[in-house]
Each structure stands twice: as structure tokens, then as C-alpha cells.
Amino acid sequence: MSQTTWFIFSAFVLIEGLNYLWSSPTVDNWFLIVGIFGHAFIASAVIAASFHYFLDATAFTQSVMNKKMMPIKESMKKS
Length: 79
Known about the structure:
This protein is mainly α. It has one domain (3-78). It is 86% helix and 0% strand. It has 2 helices and no strands. Helix 1 (3-22) runs antiparallel to helix 2. It is rod-shaped. The model has no long low-confidence stretch (mean pLDDT 87).
């Protein structure tokens, strides 16, 4: 599988698995507030990681495209 598939799969498993953990305390338990903040922290971290992954993937794609376009640009200069 590709790296993007692994990233999406691991983000999904992390969010859903920890969502099960965060939602396990009862309403009258003080641990519920820890679950709320924990879920917010983990979800924010996964969103930030996805932004970082997207920026790196975009930079990589641009570098590959520039390498492929280099011979075309050189041949146009010679003409």
C-alpha cells in the first residue's frame, strides 16, 4: 500500500480507537473531562500531521514535476 493509504488508515485507527477510550467514562466521573481534552488534543495533532503530510507531498510532487520538465525546457531553448 502507498504511504498515503497508511497515513489515512493509521489516522483513522488512532482517532476511532482513542474515541472509544475517551467515551468510556460515565457522565458523573471526573475522568470525562480528561477524555474531552484528550480527544481534542489527539484530533488536533492528527489534523496538524495531515497538514504537514500534505505540504511534504506537495513539495515532493513539485520536485518530481520540475525534474521531468527540465529536459523539455532545455530542448525548447535549443530550438
